[in-house]
Design brief:
505 residues; 12% strand; six-stranded parallel sheet; alpha/beta
Length: 505
Amino acid sequence: MKRLNSGKLARAHGSVRRPGYDRARTRIGFAHVGVGAFHRCHQAEYTEDALEAGADNRAEIGVNIRPPSIEEQLTPQDGLYTRLLVDGEKAEARVIGAIRRVVDADREAERAIEALADPGVDVITMTVTEKGYCHIPASGAIDWERPEIAEDLKRASGRRSLPGFLSEMLARRMAANAPVTLISCDNIPGNGHILKNVVSSFSEAVDKKLAVWISDNVRFPSTMVDRIVPATRPDDLARVEQIAGYRDEGVVVGEPFRQWVIEDDFNRPRPRWDIAGAEFVKDVEPYEFVKMRVLNACQSALSYLGALSGLGTTCDDVRDPMLKNFATRTILDETAAVLPFVPSMQVRPYLELTLSRLGNPAIRHANHQIATDGSQKINQRILQPLRDRMAKGLPSPLLETAIAGWVAYLAKSQPAFGSAWDASDQIMPFIAGIARQSSGDIGVFTRLFIGNRAIFGERLAEDAGLIGRVASRSRAMLGEGVAKALGGAMAEATPAGYDGVGRIA
């Protein structure tokens, strides 16, 4: 079967939605760094909607800075790919044309820098995962100990870390006097502040004049993005081939729900993503807090506890009554007490929507995939709500149990605890070291793990009571099973009283 490209597009099956505008009449006014599945299923579709509505004429160029090479998927297809939305047995296919070209910085670093430094590019968005920012999760500061940062400080060009790469690109824009807006679309609280901090810190270390120019000419609005986009599987490519009548190597699959909230801080013409439902607001933080501490916290906790229970996906987790009840009570009985009130994201209905989305049987989001890089995610999703409750003098047996699930999950990846699976996280050398030291004692492993201040911060790392409770809960999971450990934690927790919209009554 022939592969999707501009020539093949007109012969796609009638059920497939195709670009309703002339791609040749668009200009490249946006760029995106990290053209993975999430971007192509989320931000790129907002751009597609604006183009189709005639509200904006700016398409984008994609730049990939890490393997795998997206260029090999999209360049032979003229940048086209199919976005497949699935909900139960329903599937809706749409060809996205917003990405005009893709450049692989790993192979063509100079071409990638030139593309981003083009004065015609007004806005650069990015999705590089939490660890890509090279920051310390507990503080948000740039991590000068990261090997890629240390190497980039020695280079004048060809830098490979995100802070180094963007600093090199911004030096080109400074020479051309071309201000720009940089938007992080990753799940980090205050992602705009984090991006500004790491880029400005690196730039000041290599060129103080550049750091001053960045302060005056670059904007870093924060943003909150939401759509569940699991990894594309071979079955998904086959399904699109059957639906559309062409072969597509760039298929992305997502749920129907999407949300995008963006801080209204631009120094170039603002994109018309609002045409597609994006919200431009003064302060993104309340939206971030609710989304990360409800949806993302449920994803993380369920991924660890689900894997420990022998389950494969979040859909399986939500179907398990004990796991679903635990996630529900964690949010309503503990996290909700330290959440801001957002009228459009009231806690109880938002949690019900979250569990319904996670339970979508067509979205096979693997527990081990979600569990990846927990060291970069756990702070904003679970540790910060715990700290906020501690500051109020409130006990948190359920949040502590979620942490215990993470501890047990990482422990079980090590030979001393059975090597049940391979865990993926940049801290795995540290985990391997403390697992050897612990000699199979989960209490010792927990104490050494929570002692990692870069993740847990000073207060939690020194809290002997917390360490003891988490160790006890981890030990129960490994010895008595997840269900019994969760049952004990829920019996210990005090139910909170709520009004009809999910606030404490």
